[in-house]
Design goal:
4 domains, Elongation Factor Tu (Ef-tu), domain 3, elongated, OB fold (Dihydrolipoamide Acetyltransferase, E2P), four-stranded antiparallel beta sheet, alpha+beta, disordered N terminus, conserved putative lor/sdh protein from methanococcus maripaludis s2 fold, 371 residues
Length: 371
C-alpha cells in the first residue's frame, strides 16, 4: 500500500512538471510570432460641428446669373447642330436648325394665295373705278355701284388675309432656325442631329458668362434674420478661395423648395477667376445683435467625404485608439455639403479621426500622426 502511494505521487509530479514546460514553451512560441509592422503615417482632424454661433450657415452652389434652355416651337427632325458643349456663343448666333420642308410648302401655298388675291383685287379695283365714273355720269345705278364696292372691299380683305397667312408661315419658319438669345457658353446638349424635337423640349442649355452668383437655401427659423444687401462670406473649398458677396435676392416662399428659402448672393467681378458654375459653396452670413439659438440638426458633425469608408452597406471612418492604432468606427451619415458630409451619430465633437493615410488602414495597425 505504501509503495502504491509513492508511485502515484511520482506520476502526478511528473505530469505537473511536463505541463509547466509545455506552457512555457507555448508562450515563447507565441511571443516569437507577434507581428512587428511599421506604423502608417496618417493625417488627422478634429470633428467640428456646424455651429451657427458666428452667424447663419448655409450650403449653396455657384450658378450663372442667367441660364436658358433653348428649344423650338415646331416639331421636326434636327437637321444640324452648329455648337457643342463648352462652345462660346454670341447673341443672335445660329445654334441649330429643324427640318422645315412642310413649312416651306405652306409658304409656297401662301405665296400662291397672295398672287390669286392680288389678281382678284386688281379686277375689283378696275370695276370699282369704272362704275364710279359711270355713276357720276348717271350711266350706272346706285345699286350697281354698291355691288361693285362690296366686291372691291372683299377683294382687299382677301388680299390682306393672304399676306397675314404668309407672315404666320414666316414666323413658323423662323423657329426652324434657332439662335442664341444672349452671349454665353453652351453647358449642355440634350439632342443631336437627326433626333426628333417637339415644341418646348430643350435641345441645349446656355449660361451667361461673366455674371456668376451663389444660390443657397436658408431655413424658416433663420430667413427673418437676413435682408437684401447683407454681406455673406463664401468659402469655395475646391479651389481654397474665400469671397465676400452681398445678398441680392431673397425668396418669399418655400412652397416649391421643401421648406427652405432660396437666396441669391452676388460674386464680385474681381473674384471670379477660377470660379465655375456648379462649384459647391459654404455660406456664412454674419448676424449682429441677435442671440443665436442652435437646434439639434445644426450641431451635427461635419467631416470630409474622403475620410468616409464604405463597406457593403455600412459607412464608417478610422479613429485612433489609446495605443496609437487605427480603429474603425461605424457612423450614420446625413446630408452632403460640398466636400463634407454630416455625421448624425457615431462620432463626438472634437474627437480625432483619420482623414488620409499614406498606406492601407485596418483595425489594429499602428499609426503615426503626420506633423
Amino acid at each position: 500500500m505504501h509503495m502504491y502511494t509513492n508511485r502515484s505521487s511520482l506520476l502526478i509530479a511528473t505530469f505537473i512538471t511536463a505541463s509547466m514546460l509545455y506552457s512555457c514553451s507555448g508562450n515563447k512560441t507565441e511571443q516569437k510570432n507577434i507581428p512587428t509592422e511599421s506604423p502608417v503615417i496618417v493625417t488627422v482632424a478634429l470633428a467640428a460641428s456646424n455651429d451657427n454661433s458666428g452667424g447663419i450657415n448655409a450650403s449653396g452652389q455657384v450658378e450663372a446669373s442667367q441660364t436658358a434652355n433653348i428649344s423650338t416651337r415646331i416639331m421636326g427632325y434636327i437637321t444640324k447642330l452648329y455648337v457643342n458643349t463648352g462652345d462660346h456663343v454670341k447673341q443672335g448666333q445660329l445654334l441649330f436648325t429643324v427640318n422645315s420642308t412642310d413649312i416651306l410648302a405652306k409658304r409656297a401655298q401662301a405665296d400662291a394665295m397672295i398672287a390669286q388675291a392680288n389678281a382678284s383685287l386688281q379686277n375689283a379695283q378696275k370695276d370699282f373705278d369704272r362704275f364710279s365714273v359711270l355713276y357720276k355720269q348717271q350711266s350706272a345705278s346706285a345699286k350697281e355701284l354698291d355691288n361693285v364696292t362690296l366686291q372691291y372691299n372683299a377683294a382687299k380683305a382677301g388680299s390682306e388675309a393672304a399676306r397675314q397667312m404668309r407672315n404666320e408661315v414666316n414666323a413658323q419658319l423662323s423657329y426652324a432656325n434657332v439662335t442664341a438669345p444672349f452671349s454665353g457658353i453652351v453647358t449642355q446638349k440634350m439632342l443631336d442631329a437627326g433626333n426628333m424635337v417637339t415644341p418646348g423640349s430643350p435641345v441645349i442649355t446656355i449660361e451667361q458668362t461673366g455674371n456668376l452668383q451663389v444660390s443657397a437655401t436658408v431655413g424658416e427659423s433663420q430667413i427673418s434674420r437676413i435682408k437684401q444687401g447683407d454681406e455673406a462670406v463664401l468659402n469655395i473649398r475646391s479651389i481654397n478661395k474665400v469671397i465676400k458677396g452681398n445678398i441680392t435676392q431673397i425668396s418669399q416662399s418655400s412652397q416649391t423648395s421643401g421648406g427652405q428659402y432660396i437666396i441669391k448672393i452676388s460674386i464680385p467681378a474681381v473674384d471670379k477667376d477660377q470660379v465655375y458654375a456648379g462649384m459647391y459653396v459654404n455660406v456664412n452670413i454674419p448676424v449682429k445683435g441677435i442671440v443665436q439659438t442652435v437646434s439639434a440638426n445644426e450641431n451635427n458633425i461635419l467631416v470630409p467625404v474622403e475620410s468616409i469608408i464604405n463597406k457593403d452597406q455600412l459607412t464608417g471612418l478610422y479613429t485612433i485608439s489609446n495605443n496609437n492604432t487605427a480603429m474603425l468606427r461605424w457612423v450614420r451619415l446625413g446630408k452632403v455639403y460640398g466636400n463634407t458630409v454630416e455625421v448624425l451619430s457615431g462620432l463626438s465633437k472634437n474627437e480625432t479621426f483619420i482623414v488620409h493615410a499614406d498606406g492601407r488602414l485596418y483595425n489594429g495597425i499602428p499609426v503615426t500622426i503626420k506633423k
